[in-house]
Design brief:
This protein is α/β, with parallel strands linked by helices. It has a single domain, classed as Spore Coat Polysaccharide Biosynthesis Protein SpsA, Chain A. The protein is built from 11 helices and 9 strands. Helix 9 runs antiparallel to helix 10.
């Protein structure tokens, strides 16, 4: 039922915990596609060492080795190999709770018209829970999804389950961005979303090591501004200005919502 896409790049520090969070899933009708972006640590070796564990549970696993094309390229390559209708994204240092896929599959079975499902998740810093992401509190089903996303990216990558066709219809991830390419994708899909948010905590987002200052931070700002301007169709100029201003005045907003 699910094709799980997990891009990796020098992910050895937390990868085993992420893999274990897949193995403990109560619902096991899924495949996992790891798309490695030319890691120079032992990421690929760890993935290879887990192959038999997955296979013993009847879970198909594929490891793609890319030539450092970036996260958008890695995800697009994995999408080409996906065999199921539903795509789940799991970043290589994030975690799922054991009942995540079971809960998501139940929602899908109960409402065939949905094409995207989210859930709440925890925010971890140094393995300590410091924040709860209650995405359902941001969502108003009476307001355009694109307009809501434009003001606040309440989609967290590892909490997204989405129909593959929805991504294919907009030609996948933009490989020209080396960060925030997920935000660009959600905005391009825009009002094609038929969205449901499960009001339960089914995963954890782990803060990445390193800072967001200097050149990486500046580059991130430029990317987000480009994305906002590029996707401004049907968005009034006040919302455009407000969204760009938000990028400049709040670094925490970027760290929490963009990767």
């Amino acid at each position: 039922m699910f094709s799980i896409i997990c891009p990796t790049y020098n992910s050895s520090s937390f990868l085993k915990e992420t893999l274990e969070s897949l193995i403990i899933q109560k619902y096991k009708k899924f495949e996992v596609i790891f798309s490695d972006d030319d890691s120079n640590d032992n990421t690929v070796e760890i993935l290879e060492s887990y192959k038999n564990k997955f296979l013993s549970l009847g879970i198909k696993i594929k490891i793609i080795k890319n030539n450092h094309g970036g996260p958008g390229f890695a995800r697009n390559e994995a999408l080409k190999c996906a065999n199921f209708e539903w795509i789940c994204f799991l970043d290589s240092d994030d975690l799922w709770h054991g009942n995540k896929l079971l809960k998501v599959s139940a929602v899908i079975q109960a409402n065939k018209s949905l094409n995207c499902i989210l859930h709440r998740q925890y925010f971890l810093r140094k393995n300590k829970e410091i924040k709860e992401y209650d995405f359902d509190k941001y969502f108003n089903d009476k307001v355009s999804v694109k307009k809501q996303l434009y003001k606040n990216n309440f989609f967290a990558m590892s909490a997204v389950t989405i129909k593959k066709k929805l991504i294919q219809d907009v030609q996948g991830f933009n490989e020209n961005y080396d960060n925030a390419q997920d935000y660009d994708l959600w905005l391009r899909i825009g009002d094609k979303f038929n969205l449901f948010i499960i009001p339960e905590y089914l995963g954890s987002y782990r803060e990445r090591e390193g800072n967001i200052t200097s050149k990486p931070y500046q580059k991130r700002i430029l990317n987000i501004i480009k994305i906002l301007i590029r996707n401004r169709k049907d968005i009034n100029y006040f919302d455009l200005f407000n969204s760009i201003l938000k990028v400049f005045v709040n670094k925490e907003w970027i760290r929490d919502y963009f990767k």
